[in-house]
Structure formats: structure tokens, C-alpha cells
Amino acid sequence: MTSALEQSFKKRLQLIAKERNVTPAEVWQNVITERFLVRLCRSPYHSHCVLKGGTLLARYVDIGRETKDLDFTIQRLSNEISALQKTFNDIVRIEIEDGFVFMNPVVAPLEHFHMEYPGAHVKIEVRFGKAKFPLFIDLGFGDLVQIHEKELLLLSNSKGPLFEPSLTVNCYPMEFVFAEKLETAIFRGADNSRMKDFHDLYTLAISGKMLNWADTSKAIRLVFEHRKTPLRLPIQFDSSALEALQQYWGRYHKTATAATRLPSQIVEVIEVVNKFLA
Length: 278
Prior knowledge:
By secondary structure, the chain is of the alpha+beta class. It has 2 domains: 3-172, no CATH class; 175-277, no CATH class. 45% of the residues lie in helices and 21% in strands. The protein has 9 helices and 9 strands. A hairpin with a 2-residue loop joins β4 and β5 (131-141). The longest helix has 18 residues, at 3-20. It is globular. It starts with a helix and ends with a helix.
């Protein structure tokens, strides 16, 4: 890639950042995850990887937070590290004329709390011209989900798409995203420092027609039964648990980009989610 082409592309990303009122770093992260997804979709492994997490959620609703990692539930593939290493070696070798180079994937075990099967964490080195970036991917195994096929619109600016206009991926329905985050919040209780789960639950709860209630209720039941977590609604925490959660939430709220539209008190977040669940 010539220096002129590299600079031209960077200027387009800066324009996107300006048009969307986000940081250039967020746009870079977005385009990197998209270029990986394009490679995945052109690989023999695309049907085994079900997209979930914040990257997916941000395609449905403005979650007001930066998403840095990719999350997948893996189906019909071994969770052995050596097998996963080969899988990601194959994916990054797929050649696409977009100027990005994905290389040196490193797969390591990742223990998922109260999950039946160990997961994995993947770190990939990404290069574009002289720039270098890391891409982090979390893989989960054994989760129950009803797969939804979704067309994702890819990055574009006022002049049109950067590359392909869209791609189609296997992903979680939003109802299952909500159900898994709800289960995590209830199971971890006061030990849950992942305030992005409460952030996303709140965002989905106030999003109006984003969630179908019948499908959400079914997803909640299936997820809790599959993970063997007692389902007790509404969400309730004792005073000591709420105090601990408020400390986590207070720190999170101070740094959240969407702080102006998030309640400052965790109890208010829980009340909104409970109202949706009622």
C-alpha cells in the first residue's frame, strides 16, 4: 500500500468520526472488527460462529458505549486450543484486498463462570500500513441460543461504503442478548463488576419495541434453565449488595460516554429493568 492510499483512507475514517460525533479510535475499532467479520464470513467456519455481545448490540440500538472486543458462541467446533489455533490461523490467512493484514493469532484458555465448557480468548495482530492494532475475541461454548441471521450494514460515510455495503452473519436475537445479561447480573450479584451488563439491560429496557416480550420471556426461561440459575423476578439485592454494586456503578458512570442519559444510581437502573420485566 502506498503512503498516499493509506493517508486517503485515514482521512475517510476521520470524516466518519466527524459525521457520527465519535472518536477516531472508535471508528478504527469498528472497521477492524468489520474486516475480521468479512474474513470470517468468507471462511469455512462462518456457520460455526454466532455473534453476540456489545458489537452486535450496537448494530441494533445506540448503546452509548465503546465496544472493543468481539464475542462469539461457537457451535459444532472443538474447544481444544490446538483446534481453535488452526481455525484462526486459517481465517487470518484469507486474502482480501482491503489493505488490512491480520496475523499472529494467539489462542488461550478462558474460564467462563459457571459454564459447563471452558471458553477461549484470542488476540490477533492487525496492521494497516504502518499502523498496528490488537483485536481481542472471546469464544464461549455450550450456550443455548436460537440463531438469527442478520444483515449488518458496514461502515460508510457521505460518499458511500468504505468497502462492502453489508454482510450477513449468524447472531443472537436481541431477546437472547437481554436474557444472558440478565442471568449474569442475577447470578453474580454483588460480585458483578461488569457494569456494562447493567448499562445494556437498561438500554434495551428503555428501547421501546426493540424487544418482543413473548420472545424475551421465552429466552429468559431457556437461558436460566440451561445455566441452572434459579429465576427469581423482580431483580432484588439486599442493602449490602446494592452498596457494593453502587460503588462499581459510580465508577463506571463517571467514565461512561453515555453518562448523561444513564441514572447515577444503580437502584434506578434496576427499577427500570424490573418495570420492563413486570
